[in-house]
Amino acid sequence: MHRIFSKIAVLVIAATLFTACGSSGESSSDSIGEFGLKQLNTNSPDKDQYVMIETDRGNIKLVLYKETPLHRANFINLVMNKYYDGQLFFRTIKDFMIQAGDPKSRGAAPKIKLGETDVSYKIPAEIDVTKRWHKYGALSAASLNPAVESSGSHFSIITGRKVNDKVLNDHEEKYNKTLRRKTYESLQVPYRDKINKLYEESKKSSKKKKELNEMIHFFTAKTDSAMQGKEFKYTPEQRRGYIEGEGGAFHLDGYFTVFGQVLEGMDIVESISREAYDVYNRPVKDVVIKRIVILDE
Q: How large is the greatest C-alpha to C-alpha distance in the chain, in angstroms?
């Protein structure tokens, strides 16, 4: 589930993502893309990195995980471009999360819907639910195509709520069904034309119908084998956090990339999440990101 990238591969992929926004004929290091973005993060270190989100409500310190290099490098590049400076936390939901990343939120008029503008490129998902989950304070990438790719700029900070064992059990079952279906479908890809032809023929021939059933059993057995040891199950630590600790947003696990964690300032995050909001979950009183700075640690 979790992809491992070499440092060189990470830089190549990241450069490709950023260059996709630039003008043709310019190098990735100085090309200007949408919203004035440049590729400034040309030598992303292979380590955890730290940032401070300075808001008009207070500061929030976060670590960006080494293990999610594409998301980390992209976020750092956006920070270096001052992309988030002056933007709003445009969506807040009590006991769930606060969200930012819409470039049109900067100076936006009151009472208008925000959150529909983003950079054009996406980031490949870097999901490993055994190591990074949506616990209290998690930094999570937004996505319109969950478990496949992330938004290039939208992110959420999780507040969440406590749940019980049954809720976590249900999510395990739901997620494993999704994983099993995707595994089943991926195994069929090389045989898709043959399966489609056999399906049509089976409508008129009992012999072909039998062949189709045999093929279905074949792929079911292959799926059973492929799923061995890959089914998702919450660890005791994760269960304690969701049930006895601060809680989180368990229903996002497996579908969205967690690429960081709040280290200081969750009281600020909590206060923002409890702001009065309108029909679009936008705080009635703007919550402004003054700037995000990279910390040396």
A: 71
